[in-house]
From TrEMBL, chains A, B:
The keyword Nucleus does not apply. It holds the Pfam family Aminotran_1_2. Coiled coil: none annotated. This is Aspartate aminotransferase. Its EC number is 2.6.1.1. Gene3D superfamilies: Aspartate Aminotransferase, domain 1, Type I PLP-dependent aspartate aminotransferase-like (Major domain). GO terms for molecular function: L-aspartate:2-oxoglutarate aminotransferase activity; pyridoxal phosphate binding.
Amino acid sequence: MIAEKMKELVSNSSVIRKMFEEGKQMAQIHGAENVCDFSLGNPNLAAPNTVNEALEAVIKEEDPVFLHGYMNNSGYEDVRNTVADSLNRRFQTNFTSESIVMTVGAAGGMNVAMKALLNPGDEVLVFAPFFGEYRCYASNVEAKLVIVPPNIPSFIPDAHILANYITPRTKMVIINSPNNPTGVIYPESTIIEIAKVLEEKQKEYSTEIYIFADEPYRELVYDETVKPPFITKYYDNTIVGYSWSKSLSLPGERIGYLAVSENIVDFKELMSALNVATRILGFVNAPSLQQRMIARCVDEVADLNFYKKNRDSLYYGLSEMGYTCIKPDGAFYLWVKTPIAKDTEFVDLAKKYLLLTVPGSAFGCGGYIRLSYCVSPETVQIALPKFNLLLEEIEG
Amino acid sequence: MIAEKMKELVSNSSVIRKMFEEGKQMAQIHGAENVCDFSLGNPNLAAPNTVNEALEAVIKEEDPVFLHGYMNNSGYEDVRNTVADSLNRRFQTNFTSESIVMTVGAAGGMNVAMKALLNPGDEVLVFAPFFGEYRCYASNVEAKLVIVPPNIPSFIPDAHILANYITPRTKMVIINSPNNPTGVIYPESTIIEIAKVLEEKQKEYSTEIYIFADEPYRELVYDETVKPPFITKYYDNTIVGYSWSKSLSLPGERIGYLAVSENIVDFKELMSALNVATRILGFVNAPSLQQRMIARCVDEVADLNFYKKNRDSLYYGLSEMGYTCIKPDGAFYLWVKTPIAKDTEFVDLAKKYLLLTVPGSAFGCGGYIRLSYCVSPETVQIALPKFNLLLEEIEG
């Protein structure tokens, strides 16, 4: 008797559950230390000490009615100010508390933005490969997800190809850089080209097209010279969605924000709509205690060196064996071409070696797998020879 | 360029904002101490000390990766167990961790339940007067809110009248007891009659009709002999939504749960759907730190005596003056008949006396106002003579 729309999602979810159970069984039979699970994007780093210290200080020092109480649905004004100031300092932007909405993580933020902007039938463009949950978020507001095919082998979007997919119903383009699942960071030239195409299409169709910049991985960057451009500086109709889930290793706490360009069309009306959407979708507001913590920790970042070491071991290790890998400049994912055409077949073969991976087809791009390297360095070391044996088996 | 559906909501929201600004202006002109604001349902009690102590202990004692990390979208298993045990102990029920979903407050929980169950066009029945946000939640899933008219003067629903409003498309009935805005607690006999009507209608139409028991005020009860019946014991197709916002004075923290009858139709499929809905609506999971706190504070309650004193002063005070009030057995609202027919007119008149109230028409029931008495006892004492003057003015 569940809703029609939920039926397929529930059955997909039971497939994932089955995979998870399968992994647990493997661990029982072969020992957990021999199973290399690269399937989960779950930070395995502790939050910086300063985060817990700030939480304790907030609880001790701040008035409990204020601390645990309701505030404006968009968040505490001082916290939004702190976030705005931090962004302005780091990216030479012009945000104020008025342009920030605190959100229940990045997923909450994207749902709020879609609710505020999209009408049923509106088109949301994503570049394959893409985070599969975008399908659900678009479906929540009856919008249509339109997939721009992958630009192989760079996996950097081609703005001219994008242009072919824009119609009068296009209202949003999702840009996710550093990218899940590829780890690729889109260069400034790409952002400039995309902005140009969107400006032209807005004029051509007399519509507004919004970029939603989904940036939970913004701080997870391994090369100081390859930082993701801050998109509000290139394109006015931009909403940036952020979460501290990865940068502070707080995924369970559900704390993030939306930052809206002050030059976006109908700025004030949109900010009201985001505020109302936060309320009526049932979030009401981002968790208050975590907001207070952010007021004290806005510029903290967890120790990314941990992920960088894993990235280097896996990327160079697998490449030397003969795997074709995309070098990830950010996030904690490695995108690997499967040496056999069918990615799901490769994922099944890999299980024989106790290697758990996710097929690229789950991200709208077959023929690849995603390895999530938020795992221990030991897991990487145990996994490398297994990947070698697997390749040898395939190549005969 | 915001979504069509948002336009009216944004304009309503600016009306509320205007009221809020008006209140601030009044405070500036007349002094904050002279303005009596009964408009906000925002707990003004501090959370019990044990809550902050538990938060500090959790931060100190528990592994930070676990504490701030992802868990099953339905919540930590031990926390769900603790909630189930607490309910079983208190209400002689049979919940297990499998029947509990931790939610981002009661609003989050209701949205998750509606997403899991409702198809576009399904009908959701509410008894007037009702919490206005239900309109938005039903609209989020394209369901149709059907209003059962108020049963004046008791404001206890009449099951026989309810029966006339049930159609083959009825899929949910919301029961909110203790009630916002009336403070009324529905007696056991009413719950039994409603259950009987719903059982009959399910048979008649070969449909399933779910009760959603919205119970954020369950612990706010002023008479030990008038406790709200636990509805899963009377009707199998029941989902209970709870929040600690009021009972622990934590409205900003967004922590609550759904408890599902083990005898509900398609129990396992529904639990999966609730789990998936939590994920895809963007909540992902209830805030992890607050879940860990609940594991230690599940049976704590803030000092309700505070509200009881306000209730008594207001209820007896206004009744003696000649106002017709519904005696609230629970929640922190007083429902008062307006001495002139038009409630909005009365609300405007009251402003002259610096009394801020909410018209009943905002809850689908004109001719009444709601006074929220989560205010200081001093505010009540200052307000009483003002209400008297107001009545004298009206009665000439």
